[in-house]
Structures are given as C-alpha cells and as structure tokens.
Amino acid sequence: EIVLTQSPGTLSLSPGERATLSCRASQSVSSSYLAWYQQKPGQAPRLLIYGASSRATGIPDRFSGSGSGTDFTLTISRLEPEDFAVYYCQQYGSSQRLTFGGGTKVEIK
Amino acid sequence: EVQLVESGGGLVQPGRSLRLSCAASGFTFDDYAMHWVRQAPGKGLEWVSGISWNSGSIGYADSVKGRFTISRDNAKNSLYLQMNSLRAEDTALYYCAKADGYNSAFDYWGQGTLVTVSS
C-alpha cells in the first residue's frame, strides 16, 4: 500500500498570501495518478487537481499542482476567503488499492 | 446534473451488519467506476472500496477486507456496500464517489450517510 504523508498539518496564512502544500508518497505514484481535493466543514470533498497537474472543471487557475514520482505540491497562488479549508492528496494508480493523505488544514492567520 | 444519494446508515451494535446504498442519477451509471470513502468524526478521508463499471475490478482497504463487500446493480443505477462484523472503528460518514475509471480521480461525491457502531 502506498502511504501518503502531507505537510504541514496546519498552514496559517492571510488572504492574498501564497499557500504551498506538500504530499510525499512512500513509493513512486505511477503515471502521476495523484489528485488533490478540498473539503469545507459539513461538505463533501471537491476534486481540484487530477493527474498531478490538471485542474478539474470549474477550478480557478489560482490552484495549481505539480510533481512526479514521490513528491507532489499543491499551490494556491493568492488565497481567497473561500479557500480556507482542508486539502487532501490521493493516489489512484496503485492497482486496486487507493489511498488518501492525512490532510492539510489551511486556516486564517 | 450528477447526483449521488447515500442511504442505509444508522446506529448498529458491534458485530452486526448493515447495507449501504448509493442511488446515482444524471449520468450513464454503467459507464463509470464507483467507490466508497469514509470519514470518522473529526478525522481524514479513508478509501474503503472500489468497483469498476462491469464489476471486473474490485478492491478493498486492508481495514475492511473480508468484512465488507461492494457490489453494483447497473440496471438500478445503484451501488452497495454490505458491511458485516462491524466494529466501533467503522463509525464514520460513508460517501460514495464516481470516477471515470477504477484508477481515476473522484469527480463527484454524495453527501454521505452516517454509520455509528455502538452498544
């Protein structure tokens, strides 16, 4: 099973600042089958990024994903008030067993 | 509009069984893979199980393997999760999610159904 470790656990930033979230895999994620999701309190997760760097439908371009192999990054270029939430990475390339990272909370400083 | 509506959650005693359902609409159900994901209160997301469009590929997390069974009925546009030998640690909000293929990101999620395992 591929274990995903997200860091930091919590990121305290102000609106307008840049957020950089990390996701590290215990082994290489095949074909960059890595996604990022956003979850707000009381809501289901929402797909932001798939294939490590492709934005999902309707996702603003301030969200970008990068990385390959075992190291992946989600960047929010300028935080908007609605971006304060919990973010999860997920690998979906490991045969039949998919996994999520533990999450990074982006909170208002 | 894609809609996924989970049902079947509730309070159940340890060791008992429960069957969750997910009713899908707004897309051609038998063209897509489906998954179950759970979230314990105040915790992160945990992938539980997935099934390909034709049930040819099925997978389970180690934490539920041998106790949970995923299935689908394409004629009824429905996904199921049979949960046996339930434990306190299975307490969670259970989401169903749609994916283009088994090994694809989850583009739509339901709102979840709550399962509480307690005596």
Please provide a written account of the structure.
The complex is a heterodimer of chains A (109) and B (119). By secondary structure, chain A is mainly β. Chain A is built from no helices and eleven strands. In chain A, strands 2, 4, 5, 6, 9, 10 and 11 form a seven-stranded mixed β-sheet that branches. Chain A is globular. In chain B, the strands form two sheets. In chain B, strands 2, 4, 5, 6, 9, 10 and 11 form a seven-stranded mixed β-sheet that branches. Chains A and B meet through strand 4, strand 5, strand 9 and strand 10 of A and strand 5, strand 6 and strand 10 of B.
Calculate Rg of chain B over CA atoms: 13 Å
Determine the oligomeric state from the structure.
Answer: heterodimer
Distance between the termini of chain B: 40 Å
What sort of overall outline of chain B do the alpha carbons produce when their principal axes are compared? globular
Main beta-sheet strand count, sense and barrel state of chain B:
7 strands, mixed
> Cα distance, first to last residue of chain A?
36 Å
Question: Which keywords apply here?
Answer:
heterodimer; A: 109 residues; mainly beta; seven-stranded mixed β-sheet; B: 119 residues; 11 strands; 52% strand
Summarize the structure.
The complex is a heterodimer of chains A (109) and B (119). Chain A is mainly beta and 109 residues long.
What's the topology here?
The complex is a heterodimer of chains A (109) and B (119).
Chain A: E1 4-7, E2 10-13, E3 19-25, E4 34-39, E5 46-50, E6 54-55, E7 63-68, E8 71-76, E9 86-91, E10 99-100, E11 104-108
Chain B: E1 3-7, E2 10-12, E3 18-25, E4 33-39, E5 45-51, E6 58-60, E7 68-73, E8 78-83, E9 92-99, E10 106-109, E11 113-117
Parallel strand pairs in B: 2-11
Antiparallel strand pairs in B: 1-3, 3-8, 4-5, 4-9, 5-6, 7-8, 9-10, 9-11
